Fold this sequence. Notes:
Layout: H1 11-23, H2 28-41, H3 47-58, H4 67-77
Helix pairs in contact: 1-2
Amino acid sequence: xxxxxxxxxxxxxxxxxxxxxxxxxxxxxxxxxxxxxxxxxxxxxxxxxxxxxxxxxxxxxxxxxxxxxxxxxxxxxxxxxxxxxxxxxxxx
Length: 92
């Protein structure tokens, strides 16, 4: 079997792997192999299909106005306060 060494892992990621491995009663190496196998077992989607799937899940804007016009409408509808309240007033 081959050996894989991974350098520069963030401490938070390592601790998350260690915790998950413990929950699954595996070593960290076994947990990493399981995660990689699960990821590589998923069907590969091309970028166009992934985009289409995302838009199907989240919906898409169907308006006839241009993005520039929509942005302009949003920006002009915002109200600017010249004297905003201090944050500590929010909690009083």
